[in-house]
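Table S4 entry, Spore germination protein B3.
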Amino acid sequence: MKLLTRPAFRGALAILLLTAICGCWSAEEINNRAFAMMMIVDESEDGQTEITLGFPLPNRMIPGSAGGGGGATTGDPYTFTTRKAKTISEAVELIQLDNSRTISFGQTRVIVVGRKFAEKGIDPVLEFVSRQPAFHLSSNLFITPNKATEVSQVPTIFERFIADILLKFITQKQTLDTTVKDFLMARYKGGDILLPLLSFSYKPEVGAADSSKMKHWMGTDGAAIMREGKMSKIVLTDEELRGALWISSQLDTSIVTSSSPTDGKEVTAVAQGIGTKILPVIKNGEISFKIESSASAYILSSSSDIDLKSQEALNQMQEAFQKNIEKRLRQVIDKTRKAKSDSFLMNQYLFWRYPKAWNRIKDEWRTYYSEKMPIDISVKITIKRTGGEIRSVNLQEYEEK
C-alpha cells in the first residue's frame, strides 16, 4: 500500500495506462486506406490473370453525406475495379496505381474463383493470400460455373454488400464452409477438398434499384471437387451437396423424405443434432474406413396411413430414413472416388491415428482410395416426435366423411 502512495510510482502507472489506450497502431491513416471486401479471380480471354477487387465506398455509406451536402446518396455503397496481368500481384499493383487510397486486405473475407482458372489450379491464389500479412486465412473460397465477375452483377436486395450475401450462405448452412486455411492444410496432403459452387440465373420477379441488375440472381449449386489443387470435371449436384455437408458435420438440420413402408407414400422429417465420425480401421493389415452418423428427428408432414403410434411402425420408418441418408452419403463418396479425390481428407485421419499404416500406403493412396478401399456407411435416425397427429390429417378427414 505504501508503494501506491509514492508519486513516482503513480506517475509511471499513469503513463503506462495512457500508452495502453493509444489507438495509433499504424502509420497509415484509415482515411487513406481502401479496404477490399472481396477478391475475384478469373482467367481472361488472352490467358492472363484477371483480378477484381470489391471496395466499399465510404462517401455512399452514410445517407446524406455524399459530397458534404445534405442530399440523399445515390448508387451502390461499393464498387469493383478490374485489371489483368501475368500474375495476381501484378494485377493488384495495377489496381493500386489507379486508386487514390492504399489497398488493404485486412477486411477481405471472400475469394471467388472462376471455373476456367480453377480447372488450371488455384495454387496462385493460395500463394498470394498466404504471403499477405493482413489477409485472413479464414477467408471463404467459392467457385463460379463460368466467369467469376458474374458475382459483381448480383443485386444487393437483402444485404448491403455482395460479400455479405456469400457469407450468409455459409452461416445459414446453405453451402460448404471451406476457408483458405482448410485448403492450405489439404494442399499439404495432396490438395483434395470440396469448394462451394455458386449458380446464377435470371428472375423477372427480382427487383433492384439498378435496372441492369433486375433479373440477375445468385444462389448455391452443389460443390466443386478439387484434386491436387485443380477443379475436376466431376461436380456434386445441389442434392449431393447436402450429403457432403452431412458427412463433414456442417449441417445443424436437414429435411429428409422417405417412402412409407406401409403404402409407399411420402413421409417428411426434420433431422436435428447431426453428428458424423470418420474412423479409419485396420484389420488383418487391410485399411478401411467407417462413416458413422446419427441424428434425432421429428415428423414434419405425412401423406401415408402409417400409424406412428405403433413402435414397430416407428422402427420401420426410422429404418427407411436411415437407408435414404445412407444412399445419399454413398452417392457423394462414390462421386469423389470417381474423381480420384480424397475430398473428405481421410488420409489425414489415417495419418493421425495410424501413422505407420499411412507411411506404408501413402505413395499409392489415391489409387487405393478411389478403387480398392472399403468404406462402410451407417446412419442412425431416432424419431423423437411424431407431431400432433399420429396419422395423415388428409386420411383422417377422408375416413370421417
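The radius of gyration is 27 Å.
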